[in-house]
Amino acid sequence: MDFQGKIIWITGASSGIGRSLSLQLFKLGARIVLSGRNRDALQEVAKESNAKEEDYLILDFDLAADFDAKEKADAVVSKFGRIDYLFNNGGISQRSMTAETTVEVDRRIFEINFFAVDKLTKAVLPIMLKNGFGHISATSSVVGKFGIPMRSAYAASKHALHGYFDSLRAEMHGKGIYISVILAGRILTNISQNAVTKDGSKYAKLDEGQANGMSADEAARRIIKGVAKRKPEIMFGGKELLMVYIRRYLPKLFYYMAPRVKPT
What we know:
Elements: E1 7-10, H1 16-27, E2 31-36, H2 39-49, E3 56-60, H3 69-80, E4 85-88, H4 103-131, E5 134-139, H5 152-171, E6 177-184, E7 187-188, H6 191-194, H7 208-211, E8 214-215, H8 216-228, E9 233-236, H9 242-249, H10 251-257
Parallel strand pairs: 1-2, 1-4, 2-3, 4-5, 5-6, 6-9, 7-8
Helix pairs in contact: 1-2, 1-8, 3-4, 4-5, 9-10
């Protein structure tokens, strides 16, 4: 896993999987662009890493906002000269029934989980193509393969990532650009606390599933290992992974089970 000296841009780097990815990749000798909304939290990650100032850049912005992705990418190139890896890790989840959820909430979920990823990917692709190498990853979810109650817009946004990156992977074949989609199961992070409800307010609870999930550090290790192997899909989690295979090979059983899934 040779990440020594590589320029790696990570969104959602202030907490959870993104924070763990950043700290582990710093240890592997990478130079990191830390992105997220909370500048103070990003500075804490940089401080904890003990990295030198020349080895990191803090680029704080809100994925839900109308940010200029090219301007952000240009700032990275201005400091480091190139971008080798983009980890589209930032995202938001949902805890609400479809019929009760406003369209505005659905749009916000898509803005963060899909359109922000689209903007950043399109901003870094010309840079990577010019350099003849690049690796773009996107943190999806096992729910990117199936839908369960209280996740309609979230599942839809993650499904969209799979179609988008399947197409991009095919387009980039033979051009030195690699694509990985990360299918995470239940991970112990603050994703449920930050999830939106039907009116856009925070759910503000730690789900039982998250509380008993894989640690963010272990998830980051799995991601780094998978990216190093240039795996198209990197899937990890607990027993919830069974639903991926049930949906694929036993659809009738899936349709029976899905309404009975405990969504928290």
